[in-house]
Every structure is written in C-alpha cells, then in structure tokens.
C-alpha cells in the first residue's frame, strides 16, 4: 500500500512540476509528509525529478529570508581574504585579485542585463556572472573545513552562479545577489554531500544536518553546556528519535590507519581490541593442551585413536556420527560405539588423565 501511495505521489509531483515548470523544496516535502521514507528513497525521488527535467527551486519565503540575512552586506562586505589554515597557490591569488577588480552592479544594472539576456545577449550573461564571482568566494569561505579544498568549493559555487544567471527572473523583485546566493549554496552543499564524505549523504540530509548543527551551537551559547537531544528536538520541532537519527547519520567514519601519538609511529587500529582474537595466555594454554592430548592419544591403538578423532572432530572441527565412522571402517555403528567406549576408559585411567586434568580446572 505504501509503495503504491509513494508511486502516486511521485506521479502527481511530476505532473505538477511539468505544468509549473519547476517545484519548490517545500512542495516536495509537503507531498511526502506522512510517508516513511529512507534518505536514499527521498534522494531517488529528487534524482527522478531531475531526470524528468523538473527543476527544484527556492521558495519565495526562502529568498525573503536570504535577503534579510544578507542585507546590504551581500554587496558591500564581500570578503576576498584567504581563510585561516588554507594554503593556496599563486594562480588562485591572481584569480582572487582579478575578480576583486570587477565592479559590482547596481540593481538597475542587474535589471538591464536581465532584459538583455532575454533577448539572447551572451555578453550580458557573462557580465552578470563576472560581477558576482566575489559573491561565490565569500560564500565558499563559510564551507571551508568540511572535506573539500577551498578552490574546489569556489569551482562548485561558480557552477551554481551560472545556474542562477540562467534562471534569474528580475520581475520577481529580488536582487540577483540574493537569488544567486541560494543557487551557490545549493551547488556547494550538493558537492560536499557527493564528494567530501567517505559515505555519501543525500543533499537534503546534509541541509538537515547543517540545521541541527546551527541549533546545537545556538543552544550551547544559551545554556552554557552541550544541549541534550530532547532540547534540540524541542527547538527544531521534530521528534527526539529523529534528532538521534540525524546525529547518527552526521557521524564521520574514522580510519583505522589514523596516526596516533607525537611520533605518529602507531595507528588507531593498534589500540582497538579484536574481540574475536584469542588472548595470548589462552592461545599458549591451548597449544600445550593440544600437545598433551596428542601424547595421550598416541598411547591408544591406531584404530581407537582414529575413531576418537572422527567422533570428536579433532582434525577439522566436525564431529561424525557413529554411522559415519562405521561406514569409514566398514563395521557396524555398534562396533564403533564399543571401540569408542574402550578408548575413553583407557583415557580416564589416572596414568593418562592426570596429564590433562590441569587444563580442565
């Protein structure tokens, strides 16, 4: 039933997307509300919509929030300085210096270029993109330290900027920088989701993780301590089980080859106990027991020794039935039982058993 319901909802989303030309994230998430889907299943739905040529675009409310967040800082305070702990080559420095020379556009100039783009003016597209390259750098700096090189973040952000140039509609009333910020963030977060982690996380889940991290930081400042999952759940207005699931997904895998110590001559794997491995003392005791057992078995006749080896699986760990052993010797199972009983009586004799008693205590 759930599978049929999912197919029907996806079908309706595709029809709606084709009629509108696009879908917002809010429309998709509202449609999927109430259906239990794994992150992979949700990501598959996004991929299917993308395959059908249906763009997923920001909600007007999102753009309004971005405009409020960015304010005039989008244009006036774009910082092209290099982030701390980031090593870059001279060509990158030259690139940053070059884009810093490109003058920013006024809202009137943006509208004029957008009108020219509608007429197919490629030069207008190029100028609008170039004037906002420093916006990409400013946004990319916020994602340094998440598993991708600074230059790669800039490159992915530039792809988002190009998409924004192609999709920009000046009639909506938003500044281009506000609209482009959304697309640049989307491009960078998608790249981080695809490339930065050892285990890929769906894009929408990366955004959810980022939201959880922001809430954690906010509560840490307010409470003066690490917030509990219950406190985070109340702030995010989601079930506490959902918060625990997000926190589990957000965990980064750690390599067993991670260097440990100042000399870095040992690795994390050296300090993790192998629960399946036998303790050295037990292994040594087992070897001595095996040697004593072989010595005791050698005191039996060859037939008795062979019967016990087969019956108790001393060679390969598989114990044979009386029937199986009888077939190998060409005698009845009753005869094998008699041979086994006689051999065990011999082993119980003090002259033999005392050699093994210490290992049984």
TrEMBL record:
GO terms for biological process: DNA-templated transcription initiation. It comes from Neomoorella glycerini. This is RNA polymerase sigma factor SigA. Interacts transiently with the RNA polymerase catalytic core. Signal peptide: none annotated. The keyword Nucleotide-binding does not apply. The gene is sigA. SUPFAM superfamilies: Sigma2 domain of RNA polymerase sigma factors, Sigma3 and sigma4 domains of RNA polymerase sigma factors. CDD domains: Sigma70_r4 (cd06171). Belongs to the sigma-70 factor family. RpoD/SigA subfamily. HAMAP family: Sigma70_RpoD_SigA. Gene3D superfamilies: RNA Polymerase Primary Sigma Factor (1.10.601.10), Sigma-70 factor, region 1.1 (1.10.220.120), Winged helix-like DNA-binding domain superfamily/Winged helix DNA-binding domain (1.10.10.10).
